Amino acid sequence: MMSGQRLQGCRSLHVNEDSGRFLLLAVLILLYLLCGAAVFSAIERPSELRAHGRWNRTLHNFSDAFNVSLKDLNSFLREYESAVAAGIRADALRPRWDFTGAFYFVGTVVSTIGFGMTTPVTVAGKVFLIFYGLLGCAATILFFNLFLERIITLLAVVMKAFRLRRLRTSGLLPPGICQDFAASSLPGWKPSVYHVMLILGLSAIIISCCASAMYTPVEGWAYLDSLYFCFVTFSTIGFGDLVSSQNEAYSYQGLYRLANFFFILTGVCCIYSLFNVISIVIKQVLNWMLGKMSCLCCQRCKANAFLGRRNAIRPGSRLRQGRFGRPPDAEGSDTEGRRLSGEMISMRDLTSSNKISLAIMQKQLSETANGYPRTICGSSRHNGFSGGVGALGIMNNRLAETSDTR
Amino acid sequence: MMSGQRLQGCRSLHVNEDSGRFLLLAVLILLYLLCGAAVFSAIERPSELRAHGRWNRTLHNFSDAFNVSLKDLNSFLREYESAVAAGIRADALRPRWDFTGAFYFVGTVVSTIGFGMTTPVTVAGKVFLIFYGLLGCAATILFFNLFLERIITLLAVVMKAFRLRRLRTSGLLPPGICQDFAASSLPGWKPSVYHVMLILGLSAIIISCCASAMYTPVEGWAYLDSLYFCFVTFSTIGFGDLVSSQNEAYSYQGLYRLANFFFILTGVCCIYSLFNVISIVIKQVLNWMLGKMSCLCCQRCKANAFLGRRNAIRPGSRLRQGRFGRPPDAEGSDTEGRRLSGEMISMRDLTSSNKISLAIMQKQLSETANGYPRTICGSSRHNGFSGGVGALGIMNNRLAETSDTR
After folding, report:
1. What are the CB-based long-range contacts (under 8 Å, 24+) for A331-335?
2. φ and ψ at B283, to 5 degrees?
3. With an 8 Å Cβ cutoff, are A225 and B126 in contact?
4. Which of A20, A189, B144, B198 could form an SS bridge with A160, CB 3.0 to 4.6 Å?
């Protein structure tokens, strides 16, 4: 119960930090969008104007050459646009809705790439798409997460050997831990977020370069366009201005489609993982920024802590310890803290496979601490708490207790 | 050290379960794709053929009416396609790359919607997009995760009141926990995954209906098309066959663009959260399926457990208890287990804000248990373990210990 009472004051700090991080990120993203819009507008606007001029010349030349009124031409082009929506191009394309084309389509749906080179036009297709995508996208997100977790496990296999040898040689660890090391299997070992980001980034670059080396000759794109297509596809943005494997016939068609599927699958998994790892680093940067600007926040939190809560002194005092009990080299300790949290976050974020077990661990913690497993189970059968009460109580007590050491 | 040695045998079971879940999901997704391809092909193929026939008639009629050779028409249409890629349509559209258009574009990039109604055509634009999207998409993923965590907190505020009252009235909890309840603040309370899924689904439907009610009159789409657009956009699929706010002029243009931005933002956040919650439920279904087909797996694990590992008996025996110590109504206990894990998973997955604190809690756990915080910190400064060693060691010992009770 001690911890249960202690956390009252820090809870407000905790909530404030979360909201602050959220708002700070929102503001930064908005600024990022504004800057990006300015840059893209500056880069692309001239070429757009040139394209308009070029097209107007083409249109008038055609209308003069074949004395077709612009009105007729526009109505013709409008019909062509509706035909384009149905997957028709001036050059013959592969059929949109034969089985392979439909398979490509559903692949772009569940992966949320959504090129748009194929879109349902019938009412039944649109309705079915909504329900089909709802389940498919969720399953794919889970697949990506499990893939990420598998990748981390794989990296752990490789890096554990290096680390362990370096540790043993440097003799930094007391024999007790070394035994623990030797005894602990792979899941007991997780690489850091920075190593994972580096490795994922390198593999993403390698995959993109290999895929581009395939697309450039087969699709006849420039190599840079192929790289652009790879990023747009692997990041599931999927503009659809460039779409692979759309022509009516290729040499080695089956092989090319297989390689295309393979590259897109691995690339999407890799970039998705990379995005998640980068987002962790961004979160650390946000925490660091919040820590920098948190003096004002601290005052408010302490004020809150004293607002008529029991034991409000404790968190405040611990807060003061946490804030001002630091060594003078605040910068070093700060970065150190970031790396610490970075390591731990990476492990929390990148091991999505242990959730159930972790939950059970929480339950055991709570039961051993409270000693009423029966009660929990009994109540869970009726109101669906399922042991979350005591477990989460303890969890959050501890979390709030330590949240000011962030 | 006890737990450190105990987990040897169960670790293999653990890894097997993870790999099995991953493979099972991959197989199920593949089947899902095949079925979806068959259904879409059956639904859309006829309309595609009709569209081809219609377009061919239009093409020939036009070529006859204005005696333009099909070759000239096709080259003309090819030029029109390149003009379309630059954002030109028969009907006048808003400028693509003025500031507002570029802002819309970068919004579709960082959210990975990627309509493709606007795409960079210059080399500089394509290169910049790659680096811009890399950071932007990661930041947006973090934003979505923090939004999800905020939503859960909000739901916790609401649902805690209901639950607490119902508990008190039903008197299921011993007074100790009731006090803990009253004492514990919001983060000590998390709604279950099913409630969150229900609420997110309802809010997604409400947002989509409201947005469609706006799009239908303003864009002149059918209401169903508007709903289809909402799903395709909010799920970040973003085909681009329907794109809002593309005409040159609307009545109340500024207001409409603002509402469009607002709806897309809230809708994407909502559907993203919904996908993640559904993916949790899918994971539970996978675990349940694995539990059903795990007898064979158990044999293998026990075999592994006996393969020359120290204390390999222990996990095996605990495994046997876990498997055959169940009440005869295996079905009931199984579903119960699922609900348990469901509740706990939901809390683990849906509180992404406590990762750092949780990590620190792990560190404390390990330090209190091992009693060598100094050593950890010392080593962390040199090799970046940062306390993950003992902490994760203990974490995974406990996880592996309980992994057979899944």
Report:
1. A334/A288, A334/A291
2. -65, -40
3. yes
4. A189
CA–CA separation, A164 vs A170, rounded Å?
A: 10
Q: Which of B91, B86, B147, B78 is nearest to B118 (CA)?
A: B86
Rounded to 5 degrees, φ, ψ at B31 are -60, -40
As a whole number of angstroms, the distance between CA B143 and CA B159 comes to: 24
- The shares of helix, strand and coil residues in chain B, as percent rounded to the nearest 5, are 80, 0, 20
**pLDDT for position B160:** 78
pLDDT for B368 beyond 80: no
**Which of A314-328, A380-394, B176-190, B302-316 is predicted most confidently?**
B176-190
Candidate from A168-172, B13-17, B314-318 with smallest mean pLDDT: B314-318
Q: How is residue B131 written in tokens?
A: 């680096």
CA-CA distance, B351 to A386, in Å (whole number)?
A: 17
- Tokens encoding B99: 């500031």
Q: What is the DSSP letter of B353?
A: G
pLDDT beyond 90 at A349: no
CA distance to partner chain B, nearest, from residue A360 (Å): 7
Q: In sequence order, what are the residues at sequence separation of 6 or more whose Cβ sits closer than 8 angstroms to the Cβ of residue A274?
A: A197, A200, A201, A204, B134, B138
Report pLDDT digits (tens) over B82-106. Answer: 888 887 887 888 888 999 999 999 9
Helix (H, G, I), strand (E, B) or coil at B93: strand
How far is B330 from chain A, CA to nearest CA, in Å? 16
- Mean pLDDT value of segment A231-247: 92
Q: Is residue B284 part of a domain?
A: no
A62: in domain: yes
Does the structure show a pLDDT above 60 at B69? yes
User: Does the beta-carbon distance from A38 to B68 stay under 8 Å?
Assistant: no
Instruction: Report yes or no on A353 lying in a domain.
Output: no
Query: From B365, which residue of chain A is nearest by alpha-carbon distance?
Result: A398
Name the residue of chain A whose CA is nearest to B65's CA. A68
Torsion-angle region of residue B259: left (phi > 0), alpha (psi -120 to 50) or beta? alpha
B387 contacts A340? CB cut-off 8 A: yes
Q: Which residues contact B172 (CB under 8 A, 6 or more apart)?
A: A375, A378, A379, A382, A383
> Whole-structure pTM over 0.90, yes or no?
no
SS3 of A157-199: HHHHHHHHHHHHHHCCCCHHHHHHHHHCCHHHCCCCHHHHHHH
Average pLDDT, chain B: 72
CA distance B257 to B254: 5
Residue of A nearest to B166 (CA): A383
Distance from CA of A361 to the nearest CA of B (A): 6
Of A188-202, A297-311, A348-362, B67-81, highest mean pLDDT: B67-81
Spell out the residues 6+ positions from residue B229 whose beta carbon is closer than 8 angstroms to its own: B212, B215, B221, B242, B244
Phi-psi region of A86 (alpha: psi -120 to 50; beta: other; left: phi over 0): alpha
Question: Which has the minimum average pLDDT: B51-55, B135-139, B335-339?
Answer: B335-339
**How many domains, chain B?**
1
Task: For residue A247, report the phi and psi dihedrals to the nearest 5 degrees.
Answer: -65, 165
Is the pLDDT at A208 greater than 90, yes or no? Answer: yes
For position A300, what pLDDT does the model report? 56
* Cα–Cα distance, B29 to A60 (Å, whole number): 51
pLDDT in tens, B13-55: 556 778 888 999 999 999 999 999 999 999 999 999 999 899 9
Q: Domain limits at B68?
A: 18-90
Domain assignment of residue A63, yes or no = yes
Substitution target from A8, A34, A41 for chain B, most B beta carbons within 10 A: A41
Tell me the pLDDT tens digit for each residue of B236-255: 999 998 999 988 889 898 99
